[in-house]
Amino acid sequence: MHPILFDFGFFSIKTYGVFIAIGFLAAIALAVREARRTGYDPQLVLDMAFYMILGAIVGSRLFYALTHLSYYRSHPFDILKIWEGGLTFFGGFILATAACVWMAKKNGCSIWQTFDLFAPSLAVGVMFGRIGCFFAGCCYGRECTLPWAVTFTDPNSLARLHVSLHPTQLYAAVGAAVTLLVLLFFKKRKTFEGELALLWMFCYCCSRLIEELFRGDMRGDLLFNRYPASQVLAAVMLVVVVVLYPVLRRKSKRG
Question: With left for phi above 0 and alpha for psi between -120 and 50, is residue 222 left, alpha or beta?
């Protein structure tokens, strides 16, 4: 739609990057607010956020490279060119989660309570990130003739040009907004530690699987020659949530 926000000739500011930055800042602000509400040390949350963001950037790039091995085998040093784009959510999520677990254990914090604290922030980050995707044109949808179809015309856009497409980026942003509302509703009603984190995973995976039905972009090498890695991971995470939810709930009742 509008991939370049400002162009100074020798330097340009991309709309995607601006929304990613806004998403990070909004997510951190919400996490600090939740920390104060729940008695967490706000400074510790900021420290955690730093390592989680670092993990998210590195993980999202590495996972993108793994799902595009056919290209990066021939161009291994291109993996360092993050400014050219090529980030995936699940890779960032996995490494950010690992950083969160490491920091929580290092500081003697409950891992599941920490996950709950950051769950609403994840929804905020995804929401702004997907809006950024919409402006960049990445993660675009299949062709359609629906009244809300969008047509990308900017030559700098990553989407297919001059055809009506599903606005899958906005579908994902709306899904993240709904997820945030669900989490805000349940945060004072949760019955065990980890419930908010599992609710986020459930909502995100359901939203992602629906979004995948309408995606039209190439998302890397296919697993089993049929499924994008993101679709498989969303399905696996959904199964994990369904298994973990009753386990953690029973554990909290016994405890």
Answer: beta
